[in-house]
Amino acid sequence: MAGGITETGELYSPFVGLVYMFNLIVGTGALTMPRAFAAAGWAVSLALITFLGFMSYMTTTFMIEAMAAANAQLRWKRREQEEVDASDSSSDYSDDDITCRGRSEPETKPILSVQRSGGHQDPFDIVERVEMGQMASMFFNKVGVNMFYICIIVYLYGDLAIYAAAVPISLMEVTCGNHSCSAGGLKYNDTDSCWGPVTRKDAYRVFLSIFTLLLGPFTFFNAQKTKYLQILTSLMRWIAFAMMIVLAIIRINKGAGEGRPPAAALGGVPNLFGVCVYSFMCQHSLPSLVTPIADKRRLGALALADYALILAFYLLLSFTAIFCFDGARLHDMYTLNFTDNCAVLGVDFLRYFLGLFPVFTISTNFPIIAVTLRNNWKTLFHRDGGAYPWVVDRVAFPLITLAPPIAVAFCTHNLESLVGITGAYAGTGIQYVVPSCLVYFGRRRLEPVLGRDAVNKHRSPFRHAFWVWFVLLWAASCLMFVTANIILTETHK
Asked: How far is CA 490 from CA 483, 484, 493, in A?
């Protein structure tokens, strides 16, 4: 989910941009959503995910406005530097040269007036890709920049831990014999046998070790997701999602649905909040997604259409799931509910396809996110004019990138909790706090430079300062609520 979508300079249409944004947002989080819906109740889930979708859309418009403001500031600084360079070069002329220049051009005429009058480019055009970290450096002070990098690093660590756990879980479920039609949706414990004396937990750790050995080395190099690999993984994703939705609807229509979800169960709300925040995450990758769009006149409408489609998709996937399956039997990874019950899916090949689907799609993302996290560590500790020693650059940074998430995955494979905690804490910072602060300080920074008359054509429809403070207050309230719930839950254990 982190990292660039396309190479710089490769333009595409607004429709392609809409598809890319859809694919960017809908990922692993969607597979953990049905169980979170069942735990919180259908009415509470409907209300909360709709509101969180609206909040995420709002901060997306904040990010688009901040990107336009960053482009405007870069243009202003470039012109300012050109004026300084031109002034320095004019001082090198002889007196005769100055006299000759004075006859043809008044000395009071601004040096760049001809250039400015010749070009009609809006200062707020988004033509340069300005990543979130660069915007933080432009609009925040040193403390704010460091806080941003800490937040994005924690979020990426959570992302990697989720991916590192999801792949071995899927492989464990496929290989530990629960694809027999006689399994009948039974629940297994980690201590149950997988291969003779080898327990399911042992098998999980074996697969995690293999996963680390195969994909971990990519952290020491550079990895980039190619267009064709993205097309392949997107195709597999949508085949899998469509299959799950259609199969659940068919079973419900036959009257075989087992789900009887409550309308409300407040105990599941904190985790649902984290899962929903994680599932709407796209703000950190918007610069690489929005910048290549050729026609940006309707970016706000494009984002609104995308969020409406994504919300409808999440509701369709989750509601069919919670009414098709008994809530107690819903897996952390929703695909696994179709692999151990022939009453839902009787074709062996398709059951194995759904069981292994997360393995293929997630494995392609893991190296890219790992490289993104490694580069953020380098940026956080970078000092102007300094270069890292080879051992630090090539060994230390990759190791501190890879070791913590793999260690977390070895300790727990509870995907619902990993997604909930990552979304509730680091996700809140990246999705709510950072975009709100970027747009607020971006407006304050540009007003004295461009004047109050300058209008950002990409400004958010939520342009009043009230909305910025509303988002920040909401984020703070959610963090306190989630933290209090975790403390109370642990106290009563």
From this structure: 11, 10, 5
**pTM of structure:** 0.81
What span, in angstroms and rounded, lies between the C-alpha atoms of 147 and 132?
13
Q: What is the CA radius of gyration of the chain?
A: 26
- What is the Cα–Cα distance from 468 to 465, expressed in whole angstroms? 5
Give me 10's structure tokens. 């490769």
Q: Name the nearest CA neighbour of 45 among 32, 61, 28.
A: 32
The residue among 393, 422, 391, 398 whose CA lies nearest residue 409 is 422
Residue bearing tokens 């414990």? 189
pLDDT in tens, the chain (493 residues): 444 333 445 788 888 888 888 887 887 788 889 999 999 999 999 999 999 999 999 999 999 999 999 999 988 888 888 778 777 776 655 555 544 444 444 433 333 333 333 446 788 889 888 888 889 989 999 899 989 998 998 888 988 998 999 899 888 888 886 555 555 555 667 778 888 888 989 999 999 999 999 999 988 887 655 567 777 777 888 888 999 999 999 999 988 888 889 999 988 888 899 889 889 988 888 888 888 888 888 888 889 999 999 999 999 999 999 999 998 888 888 988 888 777 778 788 888 888 888 888 788 788 888 888 888 888 888 776 678 888 988 899 999 999 999 999 999 888 777 887 888 888 899 999 999 999 999 999 888 777 777 788 889 999 899 999 999 999 999 888 888 877 877 776 6
Written as six digits, the tokens of 395 are: 């060994």
- Contact between residue 136 and residue 148 where contact means Cβ atoms under 8 Å apart: yes
d(CA 130, CA 287) in angstroms, rounded, equals 6
Q: Distance between CA atoms of 173 and 216, rounded to whole angstroms?
A: 22
Q: For the residues of 258-272, what is the DSSP string, one character each?
A: -----S--GGGHHHH
Contact 63, 283 (CB under 8 A): yes
What does the block give as tokens for 447?
Answer: 């007003």
Give the angle 254-260-266 at the CA atoms, nearest 5°. 150
CB 30 within 8 A of CB 269: no
Name the nearest CA neighbour of 128 among 74, 61, 164.
Answer: 74
Name the packing angle between helices 42-90 and 465-491 (round to 10°): 130
**What is the rounded distance in angstroms from the CA atom of residue 490 to the CA atom of residue 470?**
30
- The Cα 66–Cα 460 span in angstroms is 9
Please choose, from the candidates 251, 262, 255, 270, the residue with its C-alpha nearest in 3D space to the C-alpha of residue 423: 270
293 DSSP assignment: B
> H/E element holding 33?
helix 28-40
Which residues are within 8 A (CB) of 287 and not within 5 positions of it... i.e. 6 or more apart?
63, 67, 129, 130, 131, 132, 135
